[in-house]
Amino acid sequence: MLLRYLILIASFVAGVCLLQRQPALPPSWPFLLAAAAGAALSWKIIRWRTPLFAVVLFCAGFGYADWCAQRRLAGWLPLELESRPVVVEGYVSDLPQATRHGTRFLFSPTKAEMPLPAKIQVNWYGPKDRVQAGERWRLTLRLKRPHGQINPGGFDLESWFLQQGIGATASVRTGDKLEGLAAAAWLARIRSALRDRVNAALPDAPYAGVIVALTVGDQGNIPQEQWRRYATTGVTHLISISGLHITMLAGLMAWLMNFCWRRIPFLAARFGAPRAALLAGVATALVYSALAGMAVPTQRTLLMLGTAAFCLWRARPAATGAIWACALAVVVLFDPFAVLSVGFWLSFLTVGVLLWVGGHRLGEGVKWHGWISAQWAATLGSAPILLVVFGQLPLVSPLANGFAIPLVSIGVTPLALAGLFDPTGILLYLAERLYAATDWLLIQCAAVPHSLWTVTPPPLWALAPAALGVILLLAPRGVPGRMLGGVFLLPLFVLRPEPLPEGTYRATVLDVGQGLSVLVETRNSALMFDTGLAPNGERVGMPALRAAGRGRLDELVLSHNDNDHVGSAEAVLMQFPVGRVVHSLPDDLPWLEAVREQRRCRAGEGWERDGVRFSLLWPPEGFMRKDKNSMSCVLLVDNGRHRLLIPADLGGRPEARLVANGLPQSDIVVAAHHGGKGSSSLAFVEAARPRYAVFSAGYRNRFGHPRPEILERYAAAGAITLRTDESGALVFDVGDEIGVKRWREARRRYWYAVP
After folding, report:
1. Which residue ranges traverse the bilayer (predicted)?
2. Structural domains of the chain in order of their starting residue, each with its CATH number
3. What does the alpha-carbon distance between residue 403 and residue 439 come to, in Å, rounded to a whole number?
4. Max CA separation in the chain (angstroms)
5. Are strands 102-112 and 120-125 parallel, antiparallel or unpaired?
6. pTM value > 0.85
7. Is pLDDT of 755 > 50?
C-alpha cells in the first residue's frame, strides 16, 4: 500500500517537475482534460487502476503547474512598460537591505497609473537608511521585467524571481514619503524593530549579522568571507531561519510541553499530552516562521510540519514514509514552483534519507553511533544534488555539521530568540559568543587540505541512478545487492566532458551585467580576461570555471583599474588557484601585492598554450596615461585559423594608434567599452572586419550601451552582432570552424523574459 501511494505522489511531482523544464508554456487544458478522462476510465478498468491513476496524476501535475505558471507570468510587468517612468504609491513590504550603492527593498503598490505587479524589487541609489519597513511612499520608478545573468553553472535569478512572486524590478528617480504607516506591513515593522534591537545590543560584534539572520531571517549583514567558509564546510543551511531550525525548535517546544503537561494531572485528564505537544510545536513553528517574514522556504516548512502534525493528530498508525510523501505532495500542490529550488530538494531528500535509515534501526543502540550514522546518511543523500548543481562537495561537511547543528540549533538559536526579550542584552551577547566558538571550529575545518572537492558537474540524468545507489548503500545489512549502490554512483564521478582538441579554443563571454569577463580555454589551460563587477563577477566566474571542469587558472588578465572589469579580481584570487596575473593596474593595490607571479601588459609579448597563441597588442612599452581606459590590455587569441580580439575599454587615440600599428583582422571582436560611442571607431571596425561582434552590457543599462550607431557600424561591416543582455553567456568553439552557442537559448526556460 505504501509503495502504491509513493508511486502516485511521485507521478504528480514528476508532472510538475517536467513542466518546470519546458522552454515555453503549452496550453494547460489538454493535460487537465486528459487527467479527467483518465480518472473516469480508471473506474472501469480495475485491473490497471494504479498505472492509470499514475498517468492521471502525472497529467494533472503537469497541467496544474502549467496553469499556475501562466497566472504568475501574467502578473509580470508588460514589456511595453519597461524603462517608462511611472508614479506609484505603495509601502515597503519587507526589511530594506543595504547594498554597495544604496538600498534594495520590496515595494507593494497600492495606487498607480496602470496595473502593476503585486511585488516589485526596488533599488534606490544614495543613502542606505532612507526607507524603513512599513513606510508609505510615492515613488517615480523606472521599471524592468525580472532579468538576471544566464551563464554556465550560474544562479538563475529569473527563476528566483518567479519563485518569490516578484513581477518587476525598478530603480527610483524621485520619492516622497507619505504620512502614516501601512497596516499590511505590521509584521515587517516588528521584524525591523527586532533587527534594530539586535544591532544595538551587538554594535561591533563580528557575528551580529549571523544573530540577525537566525532571529529575523535577514542575511544582508553577513560578510562574504564568512559565506565562503560556510559553503566550504557545508553549513550554509544553518545560517538562516531554515527548515532545520524551525523543525528542531518546534520539536524542542513540543518535548517541553509534553514533559510538563504529563506532570499536571488536571490538564492531562482533560486533554492528551501528545496533542498538547503537537499544538505547542506547530504554534512555535508558526511564530518563528513569522519572524522570518513568512518567506517562501519557511512556508514550505510550515506546510510540511502541519501535514505531519495532522497525520499524528489522527492517532492512527501511519508509516513515516507515508507522512513524508504526503508532506511532499502538499508542499508541491501549494507551491508548484518549489521544485525549482535546490534548497527544497536538499531538505526534503535529506529528511527522506534520514527516515529511510532510521526505519531500519532496531533498539536504541549507542547514541553517538546513531549521530554518526545520521551525518553519514545526510551527506551521502545530499551529495548527488550538490555535485550535479554546484560541482562541489564539502568533504568536511559531516564533521562540521556534527558539531554545528547542535550548537547552532539547540544552543545559539534559542539563546538569540530569548535575547530578543532580554532588556540587558546578555543573552544576545552569549548567543554571539557561542557562535564565535562555533565558527572557530569551522575555521579549523575549512583549513583542512582539500576540504572542498570540486568536479565537473555531471549531467542531470545521473541523479536517477545515484538515487538508487544511495537507497542501496543505506539499506540494512543483508539486503541483496547492497554494495552495488556504489556502482550506481559512478556516473557522478566518471562522466567528464571530452577535452578540447589540440589547436582549438573555447571562448565564453560571460554575462556579468554592465562589465566584462571572458573565459578562454584550450585543451589543458584556462585564461580569464577580467572578472566583472563585484559581486556579479564572483557569482558568475567561479561557477563557470567549475562547470568547465577547470581546477585552476593559468593566467588572469586584468585589463585596467575599472570596477566593472576587475571588481571581483580579489575574490577570484582568494578562491581559485591562479598561475600568473597579467595586468595594467596600479602597483599599490594591497590585494595585488600578495600575488606571487605577475607581469605587466606589454605590447609584443605573448605565450602559447596547446597550439593556441596569446598575444598582447597594447599598451606599448613605456606608455603611461592617467586615463585608465587608455591603459587597457588588449589581447589577441589565435589558433592559426581564427582570431579573437579583446580590446577591453580602449578607445580614442590609443585605438587609432593600434590601428596604425597594423591591427590584424579578427573573426570575433568583443566590442570595446561595452559598445560605448568613445570606442569602435570606423577605422577600427574596418581594420578588424569581424564575423562576430560581441557586446557585454547590462540589461537596459543607464548608459545606453551598446549605442545604436556602434551596432550599425559593426553590422555595416558584415558582422553578426551578439549581446550578453539578450543572449546570456556567448560560447564560441573555435577550431577549423566557429561554433556559437547562446546560453539563454541553449538552456531556454519559459520564464525567460527576453527572447
Report:
1. 235-256, 276-296, 317-334, 340-359, 371-391, 403-422, 459-475
2. 2-74 (no CATH), 81-181 (2.40.50.140), 208-339+398-454 (no CATH), 341-395+458-496 (no CATH), 505-746 (3.60.15.10)
3. 11
4. 97
5. antiparallel
6. yes
7. no
